[in-house]
């Protein structure tokens, strides 16, 4: 269960979540990108309440390492996922 999460990421800033297994990183990211709805409170991105498909067009999200193509470089993986959505 996540409680009292409140943070801001400045325009152009890259933000990473680190912590031990089971600490809520994946749960938080799922709520941020709209894959899971909070049971209380809300998530806002770019001044819009999530989930909102227009928000997803303006943010980047990369799942855990096993979601990457190991035969591609990091840049090539990003370009590949970019083509999936554009």
Main β-sheet, spatial strand arrangement: 1-2
SSE order in H/E notation? HEEHH
First-residue to last-residue Cα separation: 34 Å
Q: What is the gyration radius calculated from CA atoms?
A: 14 Å
For the biggest sheet, the summary is: 2 strands, antiparallel
Uncertain residue segments:
none
Q: What's the average pLDDT?
A: 82
Report the principal-axis shape.
Answer: globular
The helix content is 25-40%
Secondary-structure content class: mainly alpha
List how many beta strands DSSP finds.
Answer: 2
Please explain how this structure is put together.
The protein is mainly alpha-helical and 86 residues long. It has one domain. Helices cover 28% and strands 5% of the residues. It contains three helices and two strands. It has helices at 25-32, 53-56, 74-85; strands spanning 44-45, 48-49. Strands 1-2 form a two-stranded antiparallel sheet. A hairpin with a 2-residue loop joins strand 1 (44-45) and strand 2 (48-49). The model has no long low-confidence stretch (mean pLDDT 82).
What are its keywords?
mainly alpha; 86 residues; single chain
Architecture blueprint of SSEs:
Blueprint: H1 25-32, E1 44-45, E2 48-49, H2 53-56, H3 74-85
Antiparallel strand pairs: 1-2
How would you sum up this structure in a few lines?
The chain is mainly alpha-helical and 86 residues long. The chain has one domain. The protein contains 3 helices and 2 strands, in the order H-E-E-H-H.
């Amino acid at each position: 269960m996540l409680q009292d999460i409140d943070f801001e990421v400045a325009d152009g800033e890259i933000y990473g979540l680190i912590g031990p297994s089971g600490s809520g990183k994946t749960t938080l990211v799922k709520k941020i990108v709209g894959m899971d709805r909070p049971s209380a409170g809300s998530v806002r991105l770019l001044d819009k309440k999530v989930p909102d498909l227009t928000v997803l067009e303006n943010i980047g999200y990369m799942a855990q390492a096993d979601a990457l193509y190991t035969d591609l470089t990091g840049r090539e993986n990003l370009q590949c996922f970019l083509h999936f959505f554009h």
